[in-house]
Amino acid sequence: MEIIIYHNPKCSKSRATLALLEKNNIQPTIELYLQNPLSLEQLKELVKKLGISSAREMMRIKDELYTSLALDNPELNEDELLETIVKNPVLLERPIVVNGERACIGRPPENVLSIL
């Protein structure tokens, strides 16, 4: 089964998660999501695979951009939140590792071991 990591090489947690996968003899497909943003449909799939109830759970809510765009507004629906991630991929929490129909956010990196 193909394992994918949505990776930001500048992020220490993302680098640590990739190193952990490689230490476990897993060579994941590396998706540089900042250079190749995910589509709305891909993000909807990630929400399902992560088993989360809101896109906010996979957003960097402490990021200044999150605050400046007022994304904590409860009036925003899921599609609006996901469209914002499409337009601003930096808001996507990282890293995210996908293994088939399951996904996990690598914070801390050891979290991803639960889906391998």
From TrEMBL:
InterPro entries, per the entry: Arsenate_reductase (IPR006659), Arsenate_reductase-like (IPR006660), Thioredoxin-like_sf (IPR036249)
Domain of life per record: Bacteria
Enzyme class of the recorded protein, top EC level: oxidoreductase
UniProt-listed PROSITE patterns: ARSC (PS51353)
Reactions it catalyzes: [glutaredoxin]-dithiol + arsenate + glutathione + H(+) = glutathionyl-S-S-[glutaredoxin] + arsenite + H2O
Key words, A-Z: Oxidoreductase
Sequence similarity: Belongs to the ArsC family.
Listed name of the protein: Arsenate reductase
Native organism: Bisgaardia hudsonensis
